Amino acid sequence: MKQNRILSLVGLATKAGKTVSGEFSTEKAVKTGTAYLVIVSEEASGNTKKKFQNMCSFYQVPVYFYGTKLELGAAMGKEFRASMAVTDQGLSDAIMKQLTLANGGSEYVKNESI
């Protein structure tokens, strides 16, 4: 149930025009300071995860590894998506809250064996 709430918030943010997706657009949003939250699929390659981990750490943008490429894509009304950024502070806070709750109320694990 929690997972659906996260993905429905991603869908809501997308409908509001407050998300960008795909590696290039996500990276651009982080580097230009418009990204408040980055979500990378758990299925993304180790290289992609490491790249976003390092970049988001440098630019101080929260990054979470969550969902499959298909789930992220479907939530955004697109096909597969390995990475996405939320460009609205309020929506990114709401999604982060749900990610934390989905992880049993503790801080979400941002870097799993990278």
TrEMBL record:
Keywords: Ribonucleoprotein, Ribosomal protein. Residues 6-93 form the Ribosomal protein eL8/eL30/eS12/Gadd45 domain. It comes from Jingyaoa shaoxingensis. SUPFAM superfamilies: L30e-like. This is Ribosomal L7Ae/L30e/S12e/Gadd45 family protein. Pfam families: Ribosomal_L7Ae. Gene3D superfamilies: 3.30.1330.30. InterPro entries: Ribosomal_eL30-like, Ribosomal_eL30-like_sf, Ribosomal_eL8/eL30/eS12/Gad45. Coiled coil: none annotated.
